[in-house]
Amino acid sequence: MGQDVEGQIYLHGAHVAHYQRRGEKPLIFMSGKSIFAADKAIRGGVPICFPWFGAKKDDAKAPAHGFARLKQWGVESAKKTDDGGVQIVLSLESDDSTRGLWPGDFLARYTVTFAKQLRLRLEVQNTGSGPIVFEEALHTYLSVGDIREVQVEGLSGVDYIDKVQGGRRLLQGAEPVAFVGETDRVYLNTQSTCVAHDPVGERSISVSKSGSNTTVVWNPWIAKAKAMADFGDDEWPGMLCIETCNVADFAVTLGAGASHMMEAVIA
Ligand code: TA6
Predict the structure, then answer these.
(1) CA pair distance 243, 246, nearest whole angstrom
(2) Pocket test for ligand 1, best of 139, 183, 207, 212 (most atoms within 8 A of CB)
(3) Ligand 1 centroid distance, CA of 137 (Å)
(4) Do 46 and 114 contact (CB within 8 A), yes or no?
(5) Whole-model pTM?
């Protein structure tokens, strides 16, 4: 008897929007104010950031977090898994519109498994004749009871870039990550599993990974929540992003014909 599980994914951005196991609360946060439009990123779920993270260094007009989450992905396959879940494979290929924003030729293949765990595997193949350098992130929004009581284990002793302190580089102490204000940190050179302990939500959520050397932790808190039109002013206590990624110093360099795989497992 497989574990009953529910999942939702949009072809727009190959965007996972929901994941819930029978008898449990949804694991993934979705903003009640999210906009669903061809030229907009969905607010919540698991946005795919590719081929750059944050603002594009050399083009302030380019979409934040790259174009992958704004593109229509194609369905390659969908099948049941032997533990009662469903596995879907979606793909995105470079074309004139992507080359207008970024010169690389690529084939991205995203394998999403809704089962006992939520498994997200992003494979990027360099289909061009020269090397490509890209950033990538599975920008996972987790649903939590109250961020003010959440502690995240797994990042002790890891260096991080603090985007709230103008990009200063700091070292995480032995204590778990706690949240007392806007938090936007890029943890560097870490392959660790993160566990978010959520006492108000009465659960712990783990995000384990492979093929990823950086982890971003984000909560917008009060002011940033108010500043986002597609995010409720009162939604910030109920969410936490733990992002499985390769960004900043750990962008991926891929030779012609080579492939790179990054996977997140959320449970
Ligand atoms: O992952 C954290 C972050 O880079 C924050 O700086 C904030 O910009 C967040 O992503 C959301 O970005 P978005 O473009 O989805 O509004």
Answers:
(1) 10
(2) 139
(3) 11
(4) no
(5) 0.98
